[in-house]
Request: fold
Amino acid sequence: MATATARHILVATEEECLKLKTEIEGGADFGEVAKLNSSCPSRMRGGDLGAFGPGQMVKEFDEVVFTGEIGKVLGPVKTQFGYHLLEVTKRW
Reply:
């Protein structure tokens, strides 16, 4: 079974998500942006979600984590919780 590590930023609106993505792509540190803006408790760890397998996260999140490019800022991804920016840090 596949396993991945990822970090994310969770915000309420797509507009806010796109704004933060632009900041990160412009050189801002993903972890710092997560600490300052994410509504998820993982913000205290720079958005780090640790290791997980398929099915442990919501479907929309899983699809991106297990198919998206590693090391790239992915999203916005809309889930029942809001809008996410994701960065897959490792997959094996």
